[in-house]
Amino acid sequence: MKVTVVGAGAVGATCADNIARKELAEELVLVDIKEGFAEGKALDMMQTSSMLGFDTRITGTTGDYSKTAGSHVVVITSGIPRKPGMTREELIGTNAQIVSGVAKSLLEHSPEAIFVVISNPMDTMTYLTLRATGLPKNRIIGMGGALDSSRFKTYLQQSLNCSQHDLQAMVIGGHGDTTMIPLTRLATLNNIPVSTLLSEEQLKKVAADTMVGGATLTKLLGTSAWYAPGAAGAMVVEAIVRDEKKVIPSCVLLEGEYGQNDICLGVPVVIGKNGWEKILELNLNEEEQAAFNKSADAVRNMNAVLNELV
Q: Which active-site residues does the annotation give?
């Protein structure tokens, strides 16, 4: 098994570190455009191998995509990160050109690869990757739902004072501050609806905190977060390479599901060795479906900006 991560910045390096530690690949390639950067990160990680007990071989390259040849899974983290006050929409112009070029270079050398997209704005970059590569829809996965659902569980855990491992909770919709939909009605703690454990006011606060989870970290850190996004990307990779058939909320192409067409948006999907293998359609209530439709409209507006630029 060979995995490539493009972008050796904080998110890409964290993702690669998780992949190596979990031994999800025999060979892991790190790519970056900055001279020597990926090579340095790869060497630094390899020097932890004997201490952490993994055998993954990690190499880095400055833009030589021939070294990524034969990858089974590729992860795209390329692009500039968000700065304080910057929306994901403002990233489209710059990141669209970067992601499109990266996707085509990866496809040239790994035509059978499954693509995991982390770059922001993630929903639009996932849609762009699908268009740029022409690959079957099941081989393009945006990881936003995995990250947002983890943030949702964190805020629930803080309110409930419980273990996150006992929580079942997911976020669907767009990966944006105003487009994600934390499904508080369906969240459970060991099969107990959290709506019976928290007040409506508490649940609204959890949902609101989840929606601005990325912006909160950007304000605190001065740049985008990296530990949780990197771990979320690695979790999706793990579900693929280990054929886990795991249900992970992910950004995928909808063709009639949830009443939407020709858009990549976050929904629960089964992920295994073939990429995403099945969309699970939740029985949304009227309010949740309306929120999902509104989220889709907002993402379409971002995609419209993409269509003008690419």
A: 175
